[in-house]
Amino acid sequence: MSNIEVPYKIYLSEDDVPDSWYNVRADMKNKPAPLLNPGTLQPMKFDELRPVFCDELIKQEFDNDTAYIKIPDEIKNFYMMYRPSPLIHAVFLEKALKTPAHIFYKFEGNNTSGSHKLNSAIAQAYYAKKQGLKGVTTETGAGQWGTALAMACAFFKLDCKVFMVKVSYEQKPFRREVMRTYGATVTPSPSMETEAGRKINEAHPGTTGSLGCAISEAVECAIKSEGYRYVLGSVLNQVLLHQSVIGLETKKACEKYNIQPDIIIGCAGGGSNLGGLISPFMGEKLRGEKDYKFIAVEPASCPSFTRGKFVYDFCDTGKICPMAKMYTLGHDFIPSANHAGGLRYHGMSSILSQLYHDGFMEARSVEQTKVFEAAEQFARTEGILPAPESSHAIRVAIDEAIKCRETGEEKTIIFGLTGTGYFDMKAYEQFNDKTMSDHIPTDEELQKGFASIPNVN
Ligand SMILES: *Cc1c(COP(=O)(O)O)cnc(C)c1O
User: Fold this and answer.
1) Ligand 1 nearest atom to the CA of residue 235, by list position
2) Rounded Cα–Cα distance for residues 235 and 161 (Å)
3) CA–CA dist 106, 108 (Å, integer)
4) Pocket lined around ligand 1, Cβ cut-off 6 Å
5) What pLDDT digit, counting tens, does each position of 58-97 carry?
């Protein structure tokens, strides 16, 4: 640990907001597998993706070699409204745990969207605007991504159409109103507005939707609407690239105060916050300069890394998106009702999947009630009411700190606190009422999802 006095809250100065994103693919020997065209089974070409994604973002998606990509001034100016985000020394949590470990967290909940997703939303909206588009379409599960994108589109005066998973649309009416306040149109998914939605409604009457199904609707809507493109808030290489601002700032703070992390932890839904947080540190590990232990934390109800298969699969239920090679539970896998809406995706970032496959990273799955126990302890000691997603990382950070108490090791732990939980009070209510349950899928249940994996592997 540092011999320099570490302040409770490490606020970097504005000069410390990075000028470039860091692209960890440049330092990977085994590059992430390319997206495949499901028809030809050949890697997707630039022109094939143009009807779906913005041109500049396709270039970023394909770029496995450029280590640093300059952040355009317009994006950086927007970042300045809420960045740099603080790296906070969890002194009160350490005390409560009676641990010799040093715990820090990078807090990304300091903006109205309440999560790290704004880091990529603003970048994607900027490139859409620069290309002269009218608007963008997207899906949202828990609502954080939709909110972030609505804010970004309002800033650049772009139209924003959001397909929101029906169960969240009904459970989280206030999220929907935030999006509408920023000018977005919000449609519950599956809807009757798209062919994909109508098909899913027919096949599963009364379904409350899933992320994979909302993606199909949003992509179809973009392809069929003149001047629109589709944007995605996680999973893609470009999103991890944009989220590297989290890791770059964290690294700068560590260097400034001579903090040497041993363990870096993040929750993993599609992998964007974790990928962003660990990227610069992973770069050092890949180049053989330093070693760190990285831990991805996922819900036991949606265990893509810990129980999934590393294969090509569709990114969406409607099978209209390209296929990605990733740890997946199968595109037909629908996780049980779980309160960490942002962690319910069946797949995982191709970059993180490759790194995990190559042994550079570990993964752990945790049960919901254990996650909320950690959330409660964190809220009561550190004061911040954490998002259920973020609380997965808190859970494992606490577990690691308790291990240090038992072994006497003075490890330094950093975790990503991706957001706040104000819109998740239904989940907290269940936890407080002790009516929360933990569903861990059986092997047979998982088998149903695996059966949907295309036979191209
Ligand atoms: C979306 C979300 C996540 C999970 O997404 P990743 O792409 O895996 O980072 C985690 N925390 C919060 C608060 C989110 O909104």
Assistant:
1) 7
2) 20
3) 6
4) 115, 117, 144-145, 234, 267-273, 342-343, 387, 389-390, 418-419
5) 999 999 999 999 999 999 999 999 999 999 999 999 999 9
